[in-house]
Design brief:
324 residues, mainly alpha, 2 domains, two-stranded antiparallel sheet, 11 helices, 2 strands
Length: 324
């Protein structure tokens, strides 16, 4: 059944790509197309081929495939990390101003689970920053010299951040009473959360999520346009060469493992919390006084999907490194 998909999978790729690599690609599909995961892998390769087709007469399909897989691995882990951040901030919003926070002061196990979540967040952030630094420097170098068309894409995260900051400033002005809006209270109390306040906070959530999605897509496109396998940098007057995608692979592994640990710690934290405060799970302690159960399921589901996606990306990158 899966092998019957071969002609359709080949047509997913750009015509220029098929004209150049079709025979070699067909031979590979004959050998390696065995499972649904292989189909997903081919589909992701088609997306990357549409985003950026490597140039150069000396570029073989296997070389291009290895670079594309490594590059896509970094992008998948990055996108999964952004999704995990959204889930983590939702977790903070769920815990904030709820009986869960005071409980952590008296429950060492609960406090330990929360500390593991915080430590995992720090480790994942450092891994993303360290692994992405050579790639970011390469992108900026290319944008300032030969790829100026990508400058607009790099401004997307900047404008997204500014939009979030402006909205936060707006919320602060409303909360301090400097801006008065009918139906919106400067401060809310438990059991008194007007519709206007809910809409205002929902607007912030929408701006944040849309900004995160737009920024992720912009970064994905810029990285896809960067077909450089290695770059030379100068530190203290000495040159050194970095294979930018290979260099980012180990930090991507660390970030993915951190996400898995945070997911497990989050499950433990929820379990400990709800065993000590069962009324919390059946109550409405979510943001905007919504169901705790719905937020719990949503947070865990998003963390799980992002973690699975990250490890799937790592599996693709590992196979590329082994073949290279």
């Amino acid at each position: 059944m899966i092998k019957k998909l071969r002609p359709w999978l080949t047509r997913l790729y750009p015509r220029a790509w098929r004209d150049r690599y079709a025979p070699e690609f067909d031979a590979l599909l004959e050998q390696c197309l065995h499972s649904p995961l292989d189909v997903v892998d081919v589909f992701l390769g088609a997306i990357d081929a549409h985003l950026q087709l490597l140039n150069g007469e000396n570029v073989t399909w296997r070389m291009m495939n290895m670079l594309n897989k490594l590059r896509t691995t970094i992008l998948i882990v990055f996108a999964a990390y952004i999704g995990f951040i959204i889930a983590g901030l939702s977790l903070v919003g769920l815990a904030d101003d709820s009986p869960m926070i005071p409980l952590m002061k008296t429950n060492p196990s609960l406090a330990a689970a929360w500390t593991i979540i915080q430590a995992g967040a720090v480790v994942a952030l450092l891994a993303i920053v360290i692994g992405g630094t050579p790639l970011v420097l390469t992108i900026f170098r290319r944008v300032l010299t030969s790829q100026r068309r990508d400058l607009g894409l790099l401004l997307v995260p900047v404008f997204s951040f500014l939009a979030i900051m402006l909205y936060l400033g707006f919320i602060f002005l409303v909360g301090s009473g400097r801006i008065q809006i009918p139906g919106v209270l400067p401060a809310v109390q438990p059991g008194n959360f007007p519709l206007g306040n809910r809409l205002m906070l929902a607007g912030f959530a929408l701006v944040f999520v849309l900004g995160a999605i737009a920024s992720t897509l912009a970064v994905w496109k810029v990285v896809s346009n960067t077909d450089i396998e290695q770059e030379t940098f100068h530190t203290l007057g000495r040159p050194f060469t970095v294979k930018i995608h290979s260099f980012a692979f180990i930090p991507a592994v660390i970030a993915s493992i951190s996400m898995l640990i945070m997911l497990i710690a989050t499950l433990a934290w929820f379990g400990l919390t709800f065993s000590a405060l069962p009324q919390v799970f059946t109550g409405s302690f979510g943001p905007w006084q919504t169901s705790t159960q719905i937020w719990f399921i949503g947070i865990v589901a998003l963390m799980t999907v992002c973690t699975i996606a990250a490890f799937f990306g790592l599996a693709r990158g590992r196979s590329a490194r082994n073949s290279g």
